[in-house]
Every structure is written in C-alpha cells, then in structure tokens.
Amino acid sequence: MIELLIERLREVNGLSIIVRLSLAFFFGGLIGYDRGKKRRPAGFRTHILVCIGSALVMITNQYIIDVMHYTADPTRLGAQVISGIGFLGAGTILITGKQQVKGLTTAAGLWASACMGLAIGIGFYEGAILGCAFIFGSMTILHRFDAYVMSKTRLMELFIELESIKGISQVLELIRRNNMEIANVEISKTRNAEDTVGLFIIIKQKERMDHDKIITLISMVKEVVIVEEI
Question: Domains (ranges, CATH) in the chain?
C-alpha cells in the first residue's frame, strides 16, 4: 500500500501535484519566515513564491515528457530557473552608507529555496525534506553560532560617526588608553549631514573584553554620534 502511494506521488497526477505544491508552500514559507522575522528584503511571501514557482516548473517539465511524450531535456527548464533566480537574488543585495554588504544570506536563501522547489517539483521528496532541514538550520542555528563566535573574537570592526574631525583623536586616544591596538583606520564623509565624519576602525584587544562594553566606552566620547560593530 505504501509502495503504491509512493509510486503515485512520483508520477504526475492530481494527488502528486497537490502534495508537491503544498510542500513547496510549507518549506518555502519556513525558510522565508526566518528572513521576514529579521526584516530582510525578501521574506515570507517571496520565498513561498520562489519555491512554488520552481516546483511548478519541474512538474510542467515532467508532464511534458511523461504525459505528452515530447522528447526534451528534462533539466532544461530547471536550469533556466537556477540562472533566472540570480536576478531576483541580486535585488536583495545592497551596499549601505557604511560600506557594508547586506542581503547575501537572503539571496543565498532564495537560491536554495529555488533548488528545493525543483527537487519537490520532480518528486525527489527525500532530498527536498533533508534540504529544507539543512537550509533552515543554517539560517537559524548557525546564525546564533556565528554571532557567538564574533562576540568572543579579539578583533572588532567598528563604524563610528563623529560630529567633527576633532573627535577622531579623542577616540583613538581612548582606545590606546584601554590596552587595545588599532589595526586599521579609514575616514569618510557620511551621508547624514555635511559636517559629520565616518570612521571605520579595526581594533585588536590585548586582553579580551566584552564587545558591548567597548561600544559603550567609545559612545561616551563627547564627539561620538553613533558607534556600531560591523
């Protein structure tokens, strides 16, 4: 009975189409929920649409070959999805005024959701289920692990916005007084106002200190407007 059901789900029929599109909706939504919760450009609905669209492409591909008996490359439409999703992913990547690249994880998530949708669409349920588990784990569990590792490192990269260029010497002196080395410094104009100055600085701690304490310490300098770890 189970073997017969599995065989039916591998074929193109009403039951398999409903199951595949439902899985695409659920799995795409699961990945998109994490992105939407973090206020990323491509969130819940975008990931669902990408996954369902990819699944539908592969269902159509299988239908053309199995039902209509046309001779065609079964991977052709899927290959177009993989290349086409790059344009959508590129739209989520941006460079902020602080010269930070944002959206790479979201773009990768969209691409992975498309691949997952292709697996669902062709009936490769095992690969889709395991793929969803690994993708979701990478975006949630590894995100926390990465944040934990970064909080423990002795190197800190900071963006500091100052009211004027006079504040640079004050910040550098404060860092040296607190037993920290300055590995790199870059100065730039900010987009917020004409007089404010942006300072990109890499700090190396001689003795490990909590990153939040360092940020609080620097923010106490009179000329500092904003200080963020990047």
Answer: 2-150 (no CATH), 153-229 (3.30.70.260)
